[in-house]
Design a protein that fits this description.
The protein is an alpha/beta fold. Helix content is about 45%, strand content about 20%. It has helices at about 10-25, 45-65, 110-115, 120-130, 140-145, 150-170, and strands at about 1-5, 30-35, 70-80, 85-95, 100, 105. A hairpin with a 2-residue loop joins strand 3 (about 70-80) and strand 4. It is an enzyme of class 3 (hydrolase).
Length: about 170
Amino acid sequence: MLVAIGTKNKAKIQAVKVACNRAELQETIDFVTYDVASLVSAQPFSDEETCLGAINRAQAALKKGNATIGIGLEGGVKWQGKQLYLCNWAALATKDQVFTAAGAQIPLPLDITQQLLMGVELGPIMDAYAQQEDVRQHAGAIGIFTDGLIDRSEMFEHTVLMLLGQYRYNLKQ
């Protein structure tokens, strides 16, 4: 089985590999990664836009890799009332279907929200906030704001497992 992953982000790639191996889709799974466009804003600002970014990445990776499945992961933010939350979406594309799943959501601090509203992307904000480089490739905002209890890879791993569960279920139908 060939799994095409629509990203070069280390945390996201790790999430897909761990989830695919845990789901035991096949005895042998090969992975390819592609830097594909989400075709949404650099900083998605809704569930809808974040989900669409994941779908676009999954479909582009599937096509580019001529793979069995393509997986796309997208992080974004969304409003819940007057509070801005971190959100994430994942999509799994086959030649015939697209499956989607959403993951963990936590509120963002006011100072992070204010910077996002000024048009700054979350990645650079988190690097400055955490005084670290490339937070998005490692712990992610989720890792910083959960005090390391859940990192970005673990967050996306659960979302990918939801995709793979849908995919496996569908194969039985």
